[in-house]
Every structure is written in C-alpha cells, then in structure tokens.
Backbone:
C-alpha cells in the first residue's frame, strides 16, 4: 500500500462544461450501484468495447459491487451526475445536486461519467490503474478532462507514484486526452492493438484545510 498524505474529504463540486451543461462531480457511493447499472445499459456496443475491451452485454454483479465500494487509501472513484428529471435548471438543479447521494438512493440522478483508479494488477504498491467511462452524448464537452484531472490529483494524495491504463489503439479521443494530460504511450505486445498510457505523479502538498480536497 502506498504511503499517503492524510486524506481530506471530497466535497461535491458543481462543474460547468464547455457546452454550458452542468454536472455534479462527487465521490462514488454504494448507493450509486443502480444508477451505474442504468448507465451501462445505455452505452452503445462500441462504447462498451472501448471501455472493457470485450463485447460485454451486462455488468457482472460482483464487479459492480466492488466498483462502488471504496477502500480508503487504495482506490477512489468519481462520478459525474445530473438530475434525472427533465427541465431541472437553475436553483432547482443546484438544490438537487447538494443532496446528490440522497437523490441517488431515490433514483433522482443519472450518472453520465465515471472514473476510478485501483491498485495495479502487477502488485507494485506505487502504481495504480485508471479507467474512465462517459455516457453517450457527453463526449467532447470537457467532462473527460475534468474527471481525469480530479483522478490524478486524488491518486497523488493516496501516495501513488505512477498512474497507468490500457487503451485500444483505435480509441483516438482517449489517446489525445492522455497525451494532453502528460501521459506517455507505449505499445503492448504482441500486436499493438492495445496501448499502455503512463504518467508519473508528483507528491501532493498537504491540504491547508478540510475544504482543500483534490
């Protein structure tokens, strides 16, 4: 397990994207499982293949349960959420966002993006692996960038020295984003259809107050 700085709480944040839409960025909760399952069902076959690198028809219940259960200091996941009810704007939308976890329990939110890191599968405690998924219609608006930047900051706070991920060589938008965020790219043998992206993480400064969460 990496040696981490003292953990700071993550307060939900309201983000305005490039196209003017707003989302609530917050830590994942166990109560998000139904919303995550709904989001998966709405992904196109191509989006599922790019995320899981296989033709996946449904989420494994055990994998879903692991995904929403956090292990402090080892893994972390962010979700980007919007109110499910159409037409919720302005003060009404903000009010719903402030009660995000309760709204999720009541089925009041849609998950439109998620990003997580977990300890590396090779057993190196200094390395974490990331994954990111966006709902259809939420690409090209800056949401992926916001999720990845938040993920990088949080991984630093958990004491990781390197973040890596596997990306299909045909997934050009993800490769462009990775390079823009400072990741290097290398081929994975034997045929180069899968690439590994890597970025070294600088140690994070200690938070000055509880609100200075990454």
Residues:
């Amino acid at each position: 397990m990496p040696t981490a700085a003292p953990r700071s709480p993550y307060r939900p944040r309201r983000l305005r994207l490039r196209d003017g839409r707003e989302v609530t960025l917050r830590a994942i909760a166990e109560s998000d499982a139904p919303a995550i399952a709904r989001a998966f069902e709405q992904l196109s076959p191509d989006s599922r293949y790019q995320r899981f690198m296989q033709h996946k028809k449904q989420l494994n219940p055990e994998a879903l349960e692991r995904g929403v259960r956090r292990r402090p200091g080892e893994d972390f996941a962010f979700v980007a959420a919007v109110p499910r009810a159409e037409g919720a704007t302005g003060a009404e939308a903000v009010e719903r966002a402030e009660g995000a976890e309760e709204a999720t329990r009541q089925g009041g939110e849609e998950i439109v993006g998620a990003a997580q890191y977990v300890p590396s599968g090779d057993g190196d405690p200094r390395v974490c692996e990331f994954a990111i998924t966006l709902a259809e219609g939420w690409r090209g608006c800056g949401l992926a960038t916001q999720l990845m930047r938040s993920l990088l900051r949080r991984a630093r706070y958990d004491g990781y020295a390197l973040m890596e991920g596997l990306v299909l060589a045909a997934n050009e938008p993800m490769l462009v984003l990775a390079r823009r965020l400072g990741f290097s790219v290398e081929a994975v043998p034997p045929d180069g259809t899968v690439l590994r992206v890597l970025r070294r993480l600088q140690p994070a400064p200690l938070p000055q107050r509880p609100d200075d969460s990454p």
Remarks:
- The chain has one domain: 13-200.
- The longest helix spans residues 143-157.
- The chain is about 30% helix and 25% strand.
- Strands lie at 13-16, 22-27, 76-83, 109-119, 127-134, 162-168, 184-187, 194-200.
